[in-house]
Amino acid sequence: MRAIWSGSITFGLVNVPVKAYGATEDHDISFHQVHDRDGGRIRYQRRCEVCGEEVDYKHIDKAYEEDGDTVVLDKEDFDALPEADNNEIEVVQFVPSDQIDPILLEKSYYLEPEGKTPKSYLLLRQTLEKTDRTAVVRFALRQKTRLGVLRVAGKVLVLQGMIWADELRAVDFKGTKSRAKISDKELELSAQLVESYSSDFTPGDFEDDYQIELRKLIDAKLAEGDTIDTEKTFGERPDSESDDAEVVDLMEALKASLEKKRSGKKKGA
Question: Crossing angle, helix 250-268 and helix 184-197, to 10 degrees?
């Protein structure tokens, strides 16, 4: 892995030198666009609408328009912002971990201790574990000030970006205010269905089925060309008019779901 940022975590007068690494990677199959008629590669050009010339990235600035007036900002303008050179992850709060709503969280980064001794890193990690607290932090990354959290994952400190409070949309869905009566029996059956699906979460048990099928399709086309038999490649598609689709009553749907889950367990056994 290659570090994408280096700096330090600061809380009080304590300084923790760290390097940041992206914690996730994208395994989606990437494509480029081609002309459907002759397979020619589609390429996009950045052209100036004034002179008509194609423009390299190094000659592109950013502009903001308001009430008919335009302000152009170049790289030097952005670099002049005080936060642009901020290489600190500043702890602003230590909060109970259950107060952090997952909907606020964004990209994750692993933090590696840097320097001659990792003692301050280890101290912060163990303190977060012992107090069951999450550190709320402010940091700058790629010319943008961000809010984030520091938490412990195994032996590593993880930095997760957060959206700002005003970026979270407020919702007012009519259906959530319904006064529909939920019977005790429906609640009981629903709880039984939840229990039948209950287990410990093991991320490695799950795969991206779409990407697996896409890879299978690509391999088949590489081997057989455009004349592939998709039914032979993927098997016969299940009938969309299944019995499950005919269940419309909530009570009956719960009963049918429980029965299906139980019969599935018997087959597995």
Answer: 30
